[in-house]
Design goal:
Its EC number is 2.7.13.3. It is a multi-pass membrane protein. It catalyses: ATP + protein L-histidine = ADP + protein N-phospho-L-histidine. This is histidine kinase. Helix content is about 50%, strand content about 20%. It has a 5-stranded antiparallel β-sheet with strand order 2-1-5-4-3. By secondary structure, the chain is an alpha+beta fold. It is built from 16 helices and 15 strands. The protein starts with 6 loop residues before the first helix and ends in an 8-residue tail after the last strand.
């Protein structure tokens, strides 16, 4: 399998290649402009020199007289001061009268074929191949006193000389370019390393895979999730959140919107916590889009202690209530089994003792007494209630209460043949179980423990549940609050309500009854104690409100 280069190396090589290409292109453009400018400057310099030499005093007379030695003596000092490649003096017949670099060319024709315009009195600049090579040269006419052209001055720069100048400039520019390239190398490496660090050392394909995994994970989660940036604009929301909050727009339409335009919640719920809490918050009860939910919040920290946004997860509060009810029910089942096991062990131990002492008649009577009591309750519950789960619950509560020294009495008129449509079996057991637990606990606090009475009836088109105890009672001031979540009176107050399961038992009872369209009443049980009465209609009714 062919191994691919890491992203950092590929990005570095790409930056280096692009930088080299850019520098090469810049160098070519620079060379073009420098070469053109150099040709222009040297051409103008040659033109000035040729024009000044043509106007030198005495030169016209010596040219007219063809005084070759005199011309040489006159021009030689200028040649020493000039940077031109050569200086040439010619006559109107285009023959050399002076050549600074090739004296052997005297009286030989001038090469290049560009003298016609000069002989007409014009100064020109041209690039031609002369006797010593290709050159950039300027030619100026020499005039006599009658303003007639009698000779030609040619001042030139060989192209090899121009190339040497270009090479020196390019070499210097190349040194700067190499330095710049090294800086680009360093910048590219630091940039790619910092970018890779910000990408958590991940390759682009890994990041793409993580994004897809995150999207799939968010869509698969049962909890609603949304995230906001530091400006409180929505940057993420999953399908569960849109469904639970009844948001019809797609995620693409919601991204970038201010959170206040998407969610309706209690005033200042989000803004109050942005500045005050940096470690997040958990299990806060809130109302989002008129739906009561439990919210968790975690800060997004790109840099330590710098909040870049927040991630919120939430779930329906009713789901938590259902889960709490189910866990409470399981716990009650476990407690009942433990109590029944304990009682069975005591019963077995007693029976074993009687048998070891060979008191067989007492053992038989003991077995009959135990069987008759349990059988009566079992026969009564099985005959009066059609729900096996409810029968098991009531038997367990009966044994549990008896283990604690409290008698659970069933009203002879008890009857339950069918369930209300608005209340399922689990919720019904939660209601009865919590009320019985509360009554037993209250009875145990009384100076003289008494019985707890239970009445269940499905007559008169409604389910009636009545639990009466002889406990310490409930103060009138507490009655409006006992069904609130977390409510629990202190043990030393002597009140009946202890808030089973840490204040959630009666809260769940009230929630299930309200959902079923029923109501619950609390009355005093003279001479002491409390009666909880529950009414649940079998046919759902439309509530006003």
């Amino acid at each position: 399998m062919k191994r691919r280069l890491p992203f950092q190396v590929k990005l570095f090589l790409s930056l280096v290649f692009f930088s080299c290409l850019l520098l090469a292109l810049l160098g070519a453009i620079l060379f073009h402009f420098i070469d053109r400018q150099l040709h222009h400057d040297l051409g103008q310099r040659a033109r000035v020199q040729a024009s000044e030499i043509a106007l030198m005093p005495g030169l016209a007379d010596k040219v007219a007289a063809r005084d070759i030695s005199g011309i040489a003596r006159l021009i030689q000092p200028l040649r020493a001061e000039s940077d031109a490649s050569y200086i040439v003096i010619g006559d109107t017949r285009e023959q050399h009268l002076y050549h600074s670099e090739s004296p052997e060319r005297l009286n030989l024709p001038m090469i290049g074929g560009d003298n016609a315009e000069v002989l007409k009195g014009k100064t020109i600049i041209s690039v031609r191949k002369g006797g010593i090579g290709v050159s950039l040269r300027s030619k100026a006419p020499i005039f006599n006193a009658q303003h007639q052209v009698i000779g030609i001055v040619s001042v030139g720069y060989l192209t090899s000389y121009i190339a040497n100048i270009n090479a020196r400039i390019l070499w210097q520019a190349g040194l700067y370019g190499i330095g710049l390239l090294l800086l680009l190398f360093i910048f590219s490496w630091l940039f790619t390393r910092n970018l890779k660090k910000q990408m958590f050392r991940l390759e682009p394909k890994d990041i793409a895979q993580l994004v897809l995994q995150q999207k799939a994970l968010l869509e698969a989660m049962y909890e609603g999730i949304f995230a906001v940036n530091a400006e409180k604009q929505l940057i993420l929301i999953n399908r569960a959140a849109r469904e639970m909050l009844d948001i019809r727009q797609s995620e693409k339409e919601l991204i970038g919107k201010p959170l206040d335009e998407v969610l309706q919640t209690s005033p200042g719920f989000f803004s109050q916590r942005y500045a005050s809490i940096s470690s997040g918050s958990h299990d806060q009860i809130a109302v989002l889009n008129h739906r009561e939910v439990i919210v968790n919040r975690v800060a997004i920290e790109v840099e330590p202690n710098v909040e870049s946004g927040w991630v919120y997860s939430f779930r329906d509060k009713n789901d938590i209530n259902t889960l709490s009810s189910q866990l409470s029910q399981i716990k009650r089942y476990a407690d009942n089994l433990r109590i029944m096991r304990h009682e069975q062990l005591n019963w077995t131990a007693t029976l074993v003792g009687l048998l070891q002492m060979k008191h067989y008649d007492e053992a038989i009577r003991y077995i009959q007494a135990q069987s008759d009591g349990a059988q009566k309750v079992l026969d009564f519950v099985s005959a009066r209630f059609t729900s096996p789960a409810l029968c098991g619950l009531l038997l367990g509560k009966y044994v549990s209460a008896r283990e604690k020294g409290v008698e659970l009495l069933f009203d002879p008129a008890c009857q339950l043949t069918h369930m209300p449509l608005t209340l399922n079996e689990t919720e019904l057991m939660s209601v009865i179980g919590n009320l019985l637990d509360n009554a037993v606990d209250a009875t145990l606090k009384a100076p003289v423990p008494a019985a707890v009475e239970l009445y269940i009836s499905d007559r008169n088109q409604e389910l009636l549940i009545e639990v009466a105890d002889r406990g310490c009672g409930v103060d009138d001031a507490m009655k409006p609050h006992i069904f609130q979540q977390g409510f629990s009176s202190k043990p030393d107050t002597g009140n009946e309500i202890t808030g089973s399961e840490h204040g959630i038992g009666l809260f769940l009872v009230a929630g299930y009854i309200d959902k079923a369209g029923g109501n619950i009443e609390i009355t005093d049980n003279a001479p002491q104690g409390t009666i909880f009465t529950v009414f649940i209609p079998f046919k759902p009714s439309v509530r006003q409100g």
